[in-house]
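[Discussion] Sanity-checking designs against the backbone

I'm trying to build intuition for which residues belong where. Below is a structure token string of 321 positions. I'd appreciate it if someone posts a full sequence so I can compare it with mine line by line.
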């Protein structure tokens, strides 16, 4: 075999091997897009029937998907209404006929004309949840009251409303895009510091990753989200917190200052500038310079009952790339 032919053959073999071992991201993306389209079709159908805007229904579904330990990927709708709530206490045989459910004060409804309220039927689940929202009235405040009555938790109501506002603003449920939290045109460095010990204010662990950069380097939102918190904290200095549609709280601390006009309740997208790198914290408001300038970036997950910190380093490496 000529050298040129040998080289070409070798390249073809290598390319074939690489293609075989790489994950089929195109197929995964297609599957995800298909699910988004199917969900949107259901949300919009229920909106047409009930006049409840689709983004409230979608937000409840997303919140339930977030708090469940493991939702099967093929499961279209994640809302899981307890059987005693759906069928009613006393409906011991879980009779799905709407008359039986009503007799036992269950909330299950049918989203079609078959008179059977099936807690595994996506249309029945979404229609039931829409009717639950309408129990108090048709305004957003009425929806909040209905959600609190069902979930009995202020943060849950706030989170669902924030997700709904994001879906409404961007007119999509696909908010998967992410960005690295500092402008990558500037010099910066970081390593995995999550879980390291910290001494200021008592013994505690470091709940985040420190990204070192010069004063004034822009700090950006990593995600679509809603500004949930802004202001001074003795440990974090000037800091800002954003919660995304997956119920993850993104915490940015030690800022030198904020983007003009940014406030609690604002909706942001990946890459939006929130403020700039500084060295504030470890004292009363205005304290600065007790450590080199850097961004402390933390991530916290809420499961509907409690919130905890987890390691942001792997995500930062992915977003950086």
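Best answer:
Here's mine. Compare freely.
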């Amino acid at each position: 075999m000529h050298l040129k032919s040998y080289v070409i053959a070798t390249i073809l073999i290598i390319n074939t091997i690489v293609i075989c071992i790489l994950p089929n991201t195109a197929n995964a993306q297609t599957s995800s897009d298909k699910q988004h389209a199917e969900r949107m079709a259901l949300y919009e159908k229920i909106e047409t029937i009930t006049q409840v805007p689709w983004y409230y229904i979608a937000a409840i579904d997303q919140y339930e998907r977030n708090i469940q330990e493991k939702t099967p990927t093929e499961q279209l709708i994640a809302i899981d209404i307890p059987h005693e709530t759906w069928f009613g206490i006393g409906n011991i045989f879980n009779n799905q006929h709407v008359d039986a459910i009503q007799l036992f004060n269950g909330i299950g409804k049918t989203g079609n004309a078959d008179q059977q309220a099936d807690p595994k039927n996506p249309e029945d689940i979404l229609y039931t949840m829409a009717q639950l929202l309408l129990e108090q009235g048709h305004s957003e405040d009425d929806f909040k009251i209905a959600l609190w009555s069902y979930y009995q938790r202020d943060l849950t109501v706030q989170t669902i409303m924030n997700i709904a506002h994001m879906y409404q603003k961007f007119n999509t449920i696909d908010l998967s895009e992410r960005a690295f939290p500092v402008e990558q045109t500037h010099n910066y460095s970081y390593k995995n510091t999550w879980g390291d010990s910290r001494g200021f204010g008592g013994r505690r662990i470091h709940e985040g990753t420190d990204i070192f950069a010069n004063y004034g380097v822009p700090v950006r939102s990593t995600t679509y989200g809603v500004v949930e918190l802004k202001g001074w904290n003795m440990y974090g200095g000037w800091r800002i917190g954003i919660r995304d549609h997956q119920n993850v709280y993104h915490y940015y601390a030690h800022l030198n200052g904020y983007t003009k006009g940014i406030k609690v309740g604002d909706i942001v997208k990946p890459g939006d500038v929130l403020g700039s790198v500084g060295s504030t914290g470890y004292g009363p408001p205005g304290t600065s310079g007790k450590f080199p300038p850097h961004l402390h970036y933390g991530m916290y997950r809420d499961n509907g009952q409690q919130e905890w910190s987890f390691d942001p380093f792997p995500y930062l490496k992915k977003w950086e790339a």
